[in-house]
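Friendly challenge for the regulars: who can give me the structure tokens for this chain first? No prize, just bragging rights.
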Amino acid sequence: MNINLTLIGQSIAFIFFVWFCLKFIWPPVFNALEQRRKTIADGLAAGEEGVKKLEDAKQRYDELVNEGKEKVAEIISQGQKRHDEIVEEAKENAKEEAERIIASAHAEIEQEKRQARDALREKVAILVITGAEQILQREVDQKTHQEVLDKVSASL
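First reply, four minutes later:
Bragging rights claimed.
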């Protein structure tokens, strides 16, 4: 009977131990395990969300870089276009200025030609008058007349 009484005592002690473990030990352990599982799941979800946000940020970064490059290219293109316009405008202004200077120079040359002609006419008239006076003061022979004309021609 000792075996039966020992077996019953051990069974009662085991049942008490199981009840005690189920009542006081397993709930906190299960709660701790559940919290740990939830923390791990939340961490993994946050990690996956972080990876997704990182990929989204990289994609947004690439979009912004491409957009910036396009704007820079557009600004450079506009700058080049404006440069070409300024150069073309400067060429046109220079051409107009050159034409104006050339026209002014032509007018000045024409004026100087007229002044030179007038001055030459005056000198020729004076020489002709002087020559005529000398011819009239001397006798009217062909040889003397020719000498006076030669002198007048030489002085022109």
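Residues 2-155 form one domain. Residues 28 and 99 are 103 Å apart (CA to CA). Your move, everyone else.
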